Amino acid sequence: MVNSMKRLKNILLVIPALLILVSCGEDFTILAPQSDRNVENFYRTDTDFVVAINGAYAGLASNDAYGRNYMLLNEMRSDNMDNGGGATGLAESLERITLFDELTTASELENTWAGGYAVIARTNTILSRLDEATLDDPALGDRIRGEALFIRSLVYYNLAVAFGNIPLQLEEVTSPSVTINQVSATEIYNQISDDLETAEGLLPASYSGSDIGRVTSGAAATLLGLVELTNGNSGAAEAALRRVVQSNQYELVPDFADIWGIGNENNIESIFEIQYKSGGAGVGSGFTEYYSPDNAISGGVGGGNAPQTPTDDLLAAYDAGDDRFIDGFGITSGGDDYLTKYDSNPTIAFDSDVNFIVFRYADVLLMLAEAVGESPEGWGLINEVRERSGLVDPAEGLGLPYNEVLLLERRREFAGENKRWPDLKRFGVAQQIMADFLSDEGVTESDVRLLYPIPQREIDASPGALTQNPL
């Protein structure tokens, strides 16, 4: 369907009209907005393009994306996390997410949609202007093109998982008369795959110095593997994930605890992290508060914000002696369980140095196990991850079906890493598992929405242009 969507067009026009960019200083992690630059007087030098792509990374770090909302839509939606912040005001909106009763006017949905398309617009502008520019360093131009394609793909993936059929915009929008296509999620995933195959060939395998944290070819291949699994293409997923393994760029950190903490960021297991920096410039993270109970956090300022409290069901999923439980959870002085992966000691609330890991090597191994299916290799990949966590019993001896074991190990490994709800959907068990989990709340399988509703303000701004998801 071809749609003319006033509100989305306004979003897409924001960046071409007035680009909000960031510093390109010596440190890549410094993402604070510095100035507004008119696009027509910009995109002339190598430095201009570096500044522009840094701005796209900043969009990923915002509360509209990995800074907050993706966490709510992918963890709180599942049986992993519950709303520990009460049931009034904002907390009521979060409670609705956990019960599949969210409103079409929920700010979490509105901001995820609008923020996502703002980042897409930013990357579209970069890609368009690269086509017209002659950079002093052509290799830099290739790298930035790869970065822009990856960032756009990552946002489209998250939007498609959340909303299903969404608008696909691949060009810079410079006129209000543009028409936008709402296309199927399958078409979105196909476009992402094409873009990531291009990006993988343009990106370096690694970085050094102040560029550490930028997107690599391994990150592109990892996202490609995930998208192909989501799109039902296990063979293509296997090929992409094997490239990551065979690159020899990554390995499991021997001790699970050493994945986490400010001193362990961007380690040998990490494939792509969202970079944050404290200091009061608005580019710190709030994960310490989000995952800490409201009666206490481990040092720092104030108490936790508590929208992400681990469920009893999650805690019961771990075996005795599992390092992922021992080193992944704690108990406050008030007796509350909480996830410790994002512990820090901030001096300003919601202003931590703690990064968010989007992809790490354990994910590659378990996705590869998913792609190859039940086989000696598949079981071996699962066991490689289990053994790092101190579990010596072979997974194939647990007496459970292969996919059930795989989903369980993913749950144990990636609690609090925005993977549980997409995993439940991809494995085809979301409605069954969530109905069982919420049976005491009267939730049935038919109540479990697989897609979030498109924000009502988007529907209202373009009558008849957007098809709403089932409510």
Automatic annotation (TrEMBL):
Q: Where in the cell is it found?
A: Cell outer membrane
Question: Which part of the chain is the RagB/SusD domain?
Answer: 352-470
Which InterPro entries does the record associate with it?
A: SusD-like_N, SusD_RagB_dom, TPR-like_helical_dom_sf
According to the UniProt record, one GO cellular component term is: cell outer membrane
| Main subcellular localisation | membrane
What highest taxon heads this organism's lineage?
A: Bacteria
Pfam entry (one): SusD_RagB
Q: Which Gene3D superfamilies match?
A: 1.25.40.390
Keyword Signal belongs to the record? yes
Question: Where in this chain does the record put each SusD-like N-terminal domain?
Answer: 47-224
Entry annotated with the keyword Membrane: yes
Entry-linked CDD domains: SusD
Q: Which UniProt keywords apply?
A: Cell outer membrane, Membrane, Signal
Q: Which family does it belong to?
A: Belongs to the SusD family.
* Name assigned to this protein: RagB/SusD family nutrient uptake outer membrane protein
Q: What is the organism field in this record?
A: Rhodohalobacter mucosus
